[in-house]
């Protein structure tokens, strides 16, 4: 029986061996399938990171303070700016390009130089996860560019803090939905990526008024935006409206609206000064707007390998409002703009460009008026065309070089009543004295038609360590102001501006 049983056991062993080999092949196939799935998931995760998928919120990352589940990130800098202008604007860190004097003014032939620490800025960002899918962020930012009636440059230079931003943002990561309320950059201000309410893609210059062609304001409102896939976002906002009026040949700032010949009836109402207890400065006016500015924006951040590209386009609805001779006048307009921010050479050369058109005067760097008025008090919007292009070259890890060129221009918008001129850029306005020093004001009405600027500068990191960073920079700009042609010609002027800056970033 032992002889007969031997072959049977051999057959059983062979069957078990074949079964084990089959199972081993199945396990190997399953492992290969699992490895392929893991590779696919890893590739998908890399793609999401490359397309700027939001990183997980770390409540206690280095550099943050934490209290009861809320993290606080502090930002800002201590600043000293040096300013020189070949034409005396009597201006601090921001150059009012629409005020560059013509030769008629005595300050055309006087230059100015000063130091200022008022660009010093402080900010704090508070963040927390309310639920697994709900993130809350509060942001506040101040600088010292405020100038109350008690502020002066004689004794203590006591310029007061000024609210820049104060907002709350609620993000639903599961829905890709975001809501922001408070004061922040206007939605038509350009971003560098996505819809960023706290940081605009501003030209990296020292001049606080930036560069002609850049549009933006910081004002209260509410904004909602939706992520549509990892690359596309769509936003809408309702923001606080204000209007810069131009009456006849005089900007309407705290005075009755009259034309150059005093024809407009002072019953024209375009703005009001707040009464006591209104929390408005008694020397400042608020316009009669009754409809918020409505802006929609689409932003696209396509994946292009190592290259970063951001494209956006926006449209804005504005309403302008006044009252004259027992009647209200109401005009609404639409404005448009596009913006591009791109890396030409990854981490080395950046490009930005913007173009805008519409009744955008108060958003411009010049600044221009938004509208003018006819003899009957009805409103004529002033169309603005704005362009900006600039580049930043990161020459070394510490040294950046930059250059920008921009312009803002408008077209003549006027109407006449008999021989009396009205509006903006009217060819009947008197410009005979614009090139004669100290000539009467009535002989130089030149309304600005266009402002151009070319600027270049550098920023260098001279120290970076555990106690913060120190940066220094310098900027030169050449700005031209052109006026519409009137009786006596089309005056023009220019300004050479040099600014230096030293900043300490403690955070």
Topology:
Blueprint (H helix, E strand, L loop, with lengths): L1 H49 L14 E3 L2 E16 L26 E5 L4 E9 L4 E10 L18 E11 L4 E9 L32 E11 L3 E8 L5 E3 L2 E2 L19 E3 L11 E3 L5 E8 L8 E16 L2 E19 L3 E10 L12 E3 L5 E3 L2 E11 L4 E12 L2 E5 L2 E5 L23 E18 L2 E16 L8 E14 L2
Parallel strand pairs: 10-18
Antiparallel strand pairs: 1-2, 2-3, 2-4, 2-26, 4-5, 5-6, 6-7, 7-8, 8-9, 9-14, 10-11, 12-13, 14-15, 15-16, 16-17, 17-20, 18-19, 20-21, 21-24, 22-23, 24-25, 25-26
Which features characterize this protein?
Porin; 4-stranded mixed sheet; 46% strand; disordered N terminus; coiled coil
Question: How would you describe this structure to a colleague?
Answer:
Residues 10-48 form a coiled coil. This is Porin. Keywords: Coiled coil. The chain is mainly beta and 507 residues long. It has a single domain (70-505), classed as Porin, CATH 2.40.160.10. Helices cover 10% and strands 46% of the residues. It has one helix and 26 strands. It has a 16-stranded antiparallel barrel.
């Amino acid at each position: 029986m032992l002889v007969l049983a031997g072959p049977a056991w051999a057959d059983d062993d062979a069957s078990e061996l074949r079964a084990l080999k089959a199972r081993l092949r199945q396990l190997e196939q399953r492992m290969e399938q699992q490895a392929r799935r893991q590779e696919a998931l890893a590739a998908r995760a890399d793609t999401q990171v490359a397309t700027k998928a939001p990183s997980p919120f770390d409540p206690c990352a280095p550099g943050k303070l934490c209290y009861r589940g809320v993290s606080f990130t502090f930002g800002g800098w201590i600043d000293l700016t040096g300013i020189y202008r070949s034409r005396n604007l009597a201006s601090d860190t921001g150059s009012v390009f629409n005020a560059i004097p013509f030769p008629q003014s005595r300050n055309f032939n006087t230059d100015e130089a000063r130091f200022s620490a008022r660009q010093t800025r402080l900010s704090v960002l508070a963040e927390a996860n309310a639920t697994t899918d709900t993130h809350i962020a509060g942001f506040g930012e101040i600088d010292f560019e405020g100038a109350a009636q008690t502020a002066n440059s004689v004794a203590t230079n006591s310029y007061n803090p000024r609210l820049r931003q104060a907002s709350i943002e609620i993000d639903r990561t599961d829905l890709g939905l975001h809501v922001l309320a408070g004061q922040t950059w206007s939605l038509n201000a350009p971003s560098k990526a996505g819809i960023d309410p706290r940081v605009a893609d501003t030209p990296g210059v020292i001049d606080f008024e930036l560069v002609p062609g850049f549009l933006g304001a910081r004002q209260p409102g509410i904004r909602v935006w939706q992520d549509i896939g990892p690359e596309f976002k769509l936003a809408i906002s309702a923001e606080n409206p204000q209007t810069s009026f131009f009456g006849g040949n005089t900007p309407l700032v705290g005075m009755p609206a009259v034309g150059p010949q005093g024809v407009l009836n002072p019953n024209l109402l375009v703005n009001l000064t707040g009464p006591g207890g209104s929390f408005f400065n008694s020397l400042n006016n608020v316009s009669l707007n009754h409809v918020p500015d409505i802006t929609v924006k689409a932003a696209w951040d396509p994946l292009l390998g190592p290259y970063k590209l951001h494209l956006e386009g926006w449209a804005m609805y504005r309403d302008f409002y006044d009252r004259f001779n027992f009647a209200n006048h109401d005009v609404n307009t639409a404005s448009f703009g596009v913006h591009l921010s791109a890396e030409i050479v990854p981490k080395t050369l950046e490009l930005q460009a913007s173009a805008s058109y519409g009744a955008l005067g108060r958003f411009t760097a010049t600044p221009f008026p938004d509208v003018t008025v006819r003899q009957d008090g009805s409103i004529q919007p002033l169309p603005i065309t704005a362009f900006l292009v600039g580049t930043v070259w990161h020459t070394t890890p510490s040294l950046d070089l930059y250059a920008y060129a921009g312009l803002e221009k408008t077209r003549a918008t006027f109407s006449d009543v008999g021989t009396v001129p009205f509006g903006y850029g009217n060819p009947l306005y008197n410009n005979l004295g614009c090139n004669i020093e100290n000539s009467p004001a009535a002989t130089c009405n030149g309304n600005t038609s266009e402002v151009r600027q070319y600027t270049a500068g550098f920023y260098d990191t001279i120290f970076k360590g555990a106690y913060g960073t120190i940066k220094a920079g310098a900027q030169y700009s050449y700005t031209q102001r052109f006026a519409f042609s009137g009786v006596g010609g089309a005056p023009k002027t220019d300004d050479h501006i040099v600014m230096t800056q030293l900043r300490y970033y403690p955070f």
